[in-house]
Amino acid sequence: MAETKRKKRQGFKLTVILVCFVILLALLGVVFVLGTEGTGALPELPTDPTDAPTAPPATAAGDIFDEEDPQNAFQQEAAQEEKQKINLWDMITDALSGDKVKETEDVTFGIDVAKYQGTIDWEQVAATGMDFAIVRLGYRGLVSGEIIEDTNARFNLQEAQKAGLKLGAYFFSTAITKEEAIEEANWVADFLAPYQITYPVAYNCEGFGDPDNRQYTLSKQERTDIALAFLKQIEKRGYEAMFYASKNEMTDDALWEVSRIEGDYKIWVAQYPEKPYPETEKSSYSGVHHMWQYTRNGSLPGIPVGVDVDIAYFGYDGTEEAQSEETLPTAAPDPEALMPFEETNEKVTAKSETNLRDIPSQDTDATVLYTLKNGEIATRIGISDSGWSKVEFHGKVYYAVTSYLTTDLDGSETPEPTEDDGIDTEFRTVNEQVTAKDWVNLRKLPSTTMAEATVIRQLKNGETALRTGISDNGWSRLEIDGHTLYCVSSYLIRADGSADDQDTHEPGIQTQFQEVNDRVTAKDVVNLRSLPSTTDPDCKVVAQLKKGEIITRTGINTDVGWSRVEWGGQTLYCITSYLEVVS
Fold first, then answer.
1. Nearest by Cα to 293 from 307, 309, 278
2. Residue 514, pLDDT score
3. What is the pLDDT of residue 69?
4. Is 292 exposed, middle or buried (0-12, 13-18, 19+ CB in 10 A)?
5. What's 236-264 look like in SS3?
6. Are 509 and 531 a contacting pair, CB within 8 Å?
7. Is 36 helix (H, G, I), strand (E, B) or coil?
8. Angle at 190 between CA 187 and CA 193, to 5 degrees
9. Does residue 392 share a domain with residue 287?
């Protein structure tokens, strides 16, 4: 099935060659008759191209010449015959070589990413042996219907290509007509033209079961027609097309008429077994599929959060050339990709003094551009739950730690930052030597989103540290090199190789939540759990929240990155960074 389209194109090439060969024979016959008429012999054509008669210059309309001039007519016939020989030879060469890049039967591995993976270090990803990256280019708005570019798409394409990964792409569609789907496909093809796209370009459509989704009223047949319109247009624009959906949506044509798609296009199935690949060797989806997304929570060096990991049952023996030779400006990553800011407009100053940075980070990737002192006034234009503020100062945009800013501009109250470390997490006391399963970041605070939770160092497998505490929300407290640091428990193992017995703790939720009341949805999809933990054996995944499905959030803990939500009459928990607020 995977080679269907390629075989059709090769068959078409052979047909064209046969037709051209027949035409060439006919032309040679005409030349023979004209050449021997009146002279009894065929004019001898030059074998050295430099001896060939010179054809008149071509005009804007093509190779037009004066038909009344016999000499011009002869020169035109000779030139046209030589041109046809060259064209025929080019076509034969192309046919024999086929596509420049051949599809293989190799099994290859890759990831699919969007802005929600933050700023990716693609060199580190490439070093893991990944073969390809499928990059989200953009989406059509759920309500507005506008096509919106993924803010990290250009950076991801640029850096993944530079690191040597083969590229594919996908677009998140909410098209409600075939015309909109074709518009999306053309937007995608134009976007991709300057990049080397070897892997397929996928159509992704989810969340249509939500009443607020603009696709809600579409029938299964209509949705499939729209998907096919996108896939066909992508192929017309010179890229291989692929259809993405979950196992449940495709099984027995449940929500898509996959039987109409799978004969002509590759199928990419999303299905997440309890034990991902390689423990589970293949997807349980019984339908035709060429790629399997087997986890949403893969952990790779260079990616700060979980990532989708894929296995493809095909590969390529080379890398496709870009369709366009356009030189693009260097793309920078979106510093706010994992950190949504709520718009504000207020004057602030430093409580004492605070650094203004180019990105919202205190790690080595951030640069201090200015130090704001008390009395210097900036405009705060955004504030994030992660502890960062976005400010405008002297016409430029910077980022500062919120706790070091104040709206008290007259200096009547300028308290210094408190010594409180802001740690709400409660730890059960333990005393044991641990090491990393592979490697793990050790942080100043038990958080991946809090501005102050900077990475102090990394612990690698074989290095040991003293674990003095374990929390119910997935963090460990370590003593190493005279410092108290924190890391995610699931990346640790006991140094003596014995199994963890973290199920001996007192039951109950110890995470403290700040009360909120807002409506949220998933950025893409997120697990809703019985406890705010990914490692507690008592924690169960109760449901999944998909983009477009709206629930109420009643609590948030910015320290450890968990949200408390109400779903179906139950109180559940999910990772905050996978949510977005619905206005």
1. 309
2. 81
3. 35
4. buried
5. HCCCCEEEEEEHHHHHHHCCCCHHHCCCC
6. yes
7. helix
8. 145
9. no
Quick count: other Cβ atoms within 10 Å of Cβ 20?
15
Query: Structure tokens of 40?
Result: 């009894």
pLDDT per residue as tens digits for the range 238-280: 999 999 999 999 999 999 999 999 999 999 999 999 888 999 9
Give residue-wise pLDDT tens across range 137-168: 999 988 889 999 999 999 999 999 999 999 99
For the chain, what is the domain count?
Answer: 5
In Å, how far are 196, 318, 371 from 101, measured between CA atoms? 12, 5, 53
Pair (439, 542) in one structural domain: no
Nearest to 313 by CA among 101, 112, 106: 106
Report the pLDDT value the prediction gives residue 511, as an integer from 0 to 100.
Answer: 66
Contacts of residue 403, Cβ cutoff 8 Å, sequence gap at least 6: 387, 417, 452
Round to whole Å and give the CA distance between 103 and 316: 4
CA 199 to centroid of chain Cα atoms? 13
- How does DSSP assign 360-426, residue by residue? S--STT--EEEEEETT--EEEEEE-TTSEEEEEETTEEEEEEGGGEES--SSS--PPPPS-------
- Predicted confidence (pLDDT) per residue in 350-405, tens digit: 998 899 998 887 666 678 899 999 999 999 999 987 678 999 999 999 999 888 89
The DSSP output letter for 150 is -
In this structure, which amino acid lies at residue 284?
S
Domain that includes residue 437, residue range: 427-504
- The single-letter DSSP state of residue 511 is -
User: Against a cut of 0.70, is the pTM above it?
Assistant: no
pLDDT at 153: 98
CB 560 within 8 A of CB 535: no
Distances (CA, A) of 119 to 84, 124, 377: 53, 12, 30
Q: CA 146, CA 490: separation in Å to the nearest integer?
A: 40
Q: What is the distance between the terminal CA atoms of the chain, rounded to a whole angstrom? A: 44
If asked whether residues 366 and 487 sit together in one domain, one would say no
Q: What angle do CA 299, 302, 304 make, to 5 degrees?
A: 65
Residues found in the chain: 583
> Do the beta carbons of residue 442 and residue 486 sit within 8 Å?
yes
Residue 161: name the closest of 137, 133, 189 by CA. 133
> Which distant-in-sequence residues (6+ apart) come within 8 Å of 497 by Cβ?
none
10 Å Cβ neighbour count for 161? 20
Residue that has been written with the tokens 């977005």 in this structure: 580
Are residues 192 and 262 located together in one domain of the fold? yes
| Residues 265, 378 within the same domain | no
Q: What are phi and psi of 176, to 5 degrees?
A: -115, 0
Residue 135 lies in a domain: yes
Is the same domain home to 217 and 347?
Answer: no
Residue 31 has pLDDT above 50, yes or no: no
Q: Please, which residues have CB within 8 angstroms of residue 389's CB and are 6 or more apart in sequence? A: 348, 380, 382, 383, 399, 400, 401, 402, 405
Average pLDDT, the chain: 81
- Hey, CA dihedral for 72, 73, 76, 81, is it positive or negative? negative
